[in-house]
Amino acid sequence: MTDAPEALCRQAAAYLQHDKPKRALEAARRAAELNRDDEAPHRLASLALTELGRHPEAVAAAREAVRLAPADWRGQIALAEALGAGGAMLDPQRPEGHQAVAAARRAVELNPAEPRCFEVLGDIALRARRWDIAEQAYQAALRLDPGNQHAKLNLALVRERAAAPAPPPPVGGQLPAAEPPPPPANVVAAVLWPTVRTLTLVLSLGSLALIIGGLPEPGRGHVWLGVLLLAATGVLAARPVRRLPSSARRKLVRILGTQPRLGLTVFALSLGVLCLLVWTIISLFQPGDLQLPVLTCLSSAVAVVLARLRRGY
Fold first, then answer.
1. Cys-Cys link to 218, which of 61, 210, 214, 230 (CB 3.0-4.6 A)?
2. Where does the chain cross the membrane (predicted)?
3. Which long-range contacts (CB under 8 A, 24 or more apart) does 281-289 make?
């Protein structure tokens, strides 16, 4: 029974990684009932509540985690995120904003080798329009983790916003929106291009193997090869999109429209995936010919050409 709270905490963490905050909250609260002196259930509950938009409860849970383990940087991060997610700003009339920054800075002090601490500090400063703090924090995160796409995107956004004219003062004491605007289109494109190039090769080579292996007539095994190829394509495509801020994901189609070569490459890939999907669904019930996989191979080959032109060779 002593291992039950730890198992529930691992379960809650797994639910959070799979975007299931409600189930994560249930597991974290059960763990807290079994061991009220452990900070982990309260910290995980705070993260889940933040995802659910229940900010006052998230702050209370994070404060309890910090009370139980004041030297644990993860609790400080949870507190900073809970305070910042509710629209906290660096404003004299909003002490929550100062508390959020203080919690993030405390996390940096406790674990200066963890890029996540600097990343959260940068996020809060970005929401507060404190470009100097945000830029320094993201630069520190990138020194520790040069491949951190979140920090790269937001650092570019900070520099763009810092160079732009200052916005008019808020009316009636209303604070700016907590979520920053989407990053520049060229920065989003830089994040997407590596995966797009990988997808063009996977889809073109996979569909070519399907065509060659399926001659003269595809069998049931070739249909499952199509299913596997679709699954691999979906997993690869989802990873870079999840790295983008939510503001960029919601405007992804518009951003692709400002990047013609990337937009055409994604369109060719999408057409190929659609042809393969239709062929796979039909063939699951009645094996057919290879016309649609041929279209998949052709469209993905066009995408390969466009992607190679993007790289300049």
1. 214
2. 198-215, 221-241, 262-284, 290-309
3. 283/218, 283/222, 283/223, 283/226, 284/223, 287/217, 287/218, 287/219, 287/220, 287/223, 288/218, 289/217, 289/218
Residue 173 located in a structural domain: no
178 assigned to some structural domain: no
One digit per residue, the tens of pLDDT, for the chain of length 313 reads: 345 888 999 999 999 888 888 999 999 999 999 988 899 999 999 999 988 888 889 999 999 999 999 999 999 999 988 887 754 444 534 667 778 888 998 999 999 999 999 999 988 888 877 888 888 999 999 999 988 888 888 888 888 877 766 555 555 444 444 445 555 565 566 667 788 888 888 888 888 888 888 777 777 787 888 888 889 888 888 877 776 666 666 677 777 777 788 788 888 888 888 988 888 888 878 776 778 778 888 888 887 887 776 443 3
- The C-alpha atoms of residue 98 and residue 266 are separated, in whole angstroms, by 43
How much is the CA Rg of the chain, to the nearest whole Å?
Answer: 24
Range(s) of the domain holding residue 150: 4-164
- Preceding omega of 165 cis (within 30 degrees of 0): no
CATH at residue 121: 1.25.40.10
Domain boundary among 111, 135, 164: 164
Q: Do 134 and 11 share a domain, yes or no?
A: yes
52 and 72 in contact (C-beta within 8 Å)? no
Q: Is residue 66 part of a domain?
A: yes
Task: Please indicate, yes or no, whether residues 88 and 217 belong to a single structural domain of this protein.
Answer: no
